Amino acid sequence: MTLAEYKKQFGAFRVYAFLVVIISVALYLGFKLGGANQSRQASLISIHEQSIQNLTTENLKLTKDLNVLGVELEIAKLAQMRHKSEIETILDREKKLKSTLEFYQQVMAPELKEEGFSIEGFYAEPTLSENSYRFELALVQHEKTKNTLKGTLNISLVGSENGQPKEYPLKQFLPEQQALRFSFKYFQLLNGEVTLPTGFQPEKVTVHAAIYQFKRKKGELTTTFDWLSTRE
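User: That's the sequence. What structure does it adopt?
Assistant: Structure tokens below.
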């Protein structure tokens, strides 16, 4: 049926009124559906924003935890290095104590060593003055029957100076009145202080002893030590 037939049957006013109602209903439904869709979109956007915020917060927390773990790892590494250094120090101290114990065993219990004479150690340590060192030389007699040993020492410092091999007699750096002589029954410590030439770096110390007993020459002994076998 056409619009004209509807007008003829129901009247033009009613037909147009009906059309206006239909259009109004359609507009109203369209507005409602559009508002509902907009509300749904806004709700989805809010949910996504909340999810992003939650993920950002979690990411910040994970980053902070990672940084804390990194710091703890560095602290653990430092502690491990410190413990390693402490162990090395303890082992070195034990080695020096063992050396000292052996030295006094030679004096108090000579039967533990061969009978005779020995040069047990040359120790040196730097002083506050530049190129200046204090030194100490230990001499020991191992014979069961102790008789006075006398003799002279010839000590040489072997090293390098300005990139070239160099050797100096120790007495060159000692006062004239200080003679390198010894006289003892059990053991003797000889010490002194020397100032070395600038540029000279000693590496070895050679000690030669001429030994006398009852005014007769008993023998000779030469021993070489590393320089700066510093005793703590």
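The first helix runs from residue 3 to 10.
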